[in-house]
């Protein structure tokens, strides 16, 4: 019995998604470190929003794709369905990558501040 990930490109999509999450984590850690070097201690929401900005990018690209490539749907209902599913997908991506960004910054800060010795 074949599963969903067994098709052509199933493993490739998983690798791309993993690379996407790792890149998001690395960017969030670097930006968090730069903000801490500038003595900006409010990193919590900034780390989440840095990761979640990929959802905004996907929303903008989905709008561009609709206007430039789909030759505009014939009826309004198709457009509403398209943008509704696009908004849900972008929101879930933003929450997922925002959580990855926040957790990666949190682990990074626990690591660097855990190695500080107070004498």
Summarize the structure.
This protein has 119 residues and is mainly alpha-helical. The chain has 3 helices and no strands.
Describe this structure in words.
- This protein is an all-alpha fold.
- The chain has one domain (10-114).
- Helix content is 77%, strand content 0%.
- It is built from three helices and no strands.
- Helix 1 packs across helix 2 (44-68) and helix 1 packs across helix 3.
- It is elongated and about 70 Å long.
- The model has no long low-confidence stretch (mean pLDDT 87).
Descriptive terms for the model:
single chain; 119 residues; mainly alpha; 77% helix
**Could you give a short account of the major beta sheet?**
none
Could you say which structural class the secondary elements and strand pairing correspond to? mainly alpha
Q: What is the number of helical segments per DSSP (H or I, 4+ residues)?
A: 3
Low-pLDDT segments: none
The count of β-strands is 0
Order of helices and strands: HHH
Compile the SSE list and pairings:
Layout: H1 10-37, H2 44-68, H3 76-114
Helix pairs in contact: 1-2, 1-3, 2-3
């Amino acid at each position: 019995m074949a599963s969903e990930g067994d098709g052509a490109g199933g493993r490739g999509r998983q690798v791309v998604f993993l690379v996407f999450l790792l890149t998001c984590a690395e960017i969030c850690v670097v930006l968090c470190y730069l903000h801490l070097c500038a003595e900006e201690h409010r990193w919590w929401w900034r780390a989440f929003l840095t990761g979640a900005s990929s959802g905004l990018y996907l929303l903008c690209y989905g709008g561009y794709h609709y206007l430039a490539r789909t030759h505009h749907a014939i009826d309004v209902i198709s457009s509403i369905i398209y943008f509704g599913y696009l908004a849900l997908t972008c929101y879930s991506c933003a929450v997922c990558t925002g959580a990855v960004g926040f957790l990666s910054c949190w682990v990074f800060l626990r690591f660097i501040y855990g190695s500080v010795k107070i004498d």
